[in-house]
Amino acid sequence: MEEKVIICKELTKSFGDFYAVNKISFDVNKGEIFGFLGANGAGKTTAMRMLCGLSFPTSGEATVAGFNVYKQQDSIKKNIGYMSQKFSLYENLTVLENISFFGGVYGVRKKEIKERSEELIQTLGLQNETKKLVGELPLGWKQKLAFSVAIFHKPKIVFLDEPTGGVDPLTRRQFWDMIYKAADEGITVFVTTHYMDEAEYCNRISIMVDGRVEALDSPGKLKERFSADSMDEVFYKLARGAKRGE
Ligand SMILES: Nc1ncnc2c1ncn2[C@@H]1O[C@H](COP(=O)(O)OP(=O)(O)OP(=O)(O)O)[C@@H](O)[C@H]1O
């Protein structure tokens, strides 16, 4: 049987009498690339924050990397990586300083940080930029570096909140090559995106509408079920009934 690294049962978060996340249930398998889709305001960020141990659910259950989201938030944080557009790297530290800072925070040994950061710099082709401040790098490079830093401590799961926003399709494609490589190495990838071409790259996708998971399957099966030619069309058919969002 497949190892499940996220198990989520009727997970709920309400703010007063508003249910931002309303009884969502799903499992994510080890090494899977799991796309977490939904229109603006559907509840993705709220759900992701609970799964990352950053906020307490109102009700329901979930375990992430085997740890309970109510009682073991610190263990969750140590065993995951997280990257979002809002929180990623320190712009006023250099490339190398960012790698060693985050490596250190996640408990990677100094010697290993040194060895592996050299490797990483080579892989990313950043040999000439190691002493540059991250703030000076183009957005696409920042995102690739932020992803590499988020998985530097070899977490069980990496959570990516719209990781490729604002960059060109070629750079997004290169970013996804990195995601595939991480998944091949056994890291589970939980990713939100608004780009439907990226949804096609996921093994399975869940689509949230107004706080609920309305559909969950592989891109192929979803297209079949909704008699759609593209994920764009699936998404539109599901999300057009949404009451929230812009
Ligand atoms: N702290 C809060 N207090 C009250 N309402 C909140 C709070 N946080 C989020 N919400 C509301 O919950 C709903 C879900 O928000 P959330 O940010 O999770 O959506 P999202 O799917 O991530 O949207 P987006 O794609 O725009 O980031 C929204 O209507 C939002 O206004």
Automatic annotation (TrEMBL):
User: Tell me, what's a Pfam family for it?
Assistant: ABC_tran
Q: InterPro entries attached here?
A: AAA+_ATPase, ABC_transporter-like_ATP-bd, P-loop_NTPase
Q: Does Signal show up as a keyword for this record? A: no
Q: One GO molecular-function annotation for this sequence?
A: ATP binding
Domain named ABC transporter is located at 6-235
Supply the name of the protein.
ABC transporter ATP-binding protein
Q: Which UniProt keywords apply?
A: ATP-binding, Nucleotide-binding
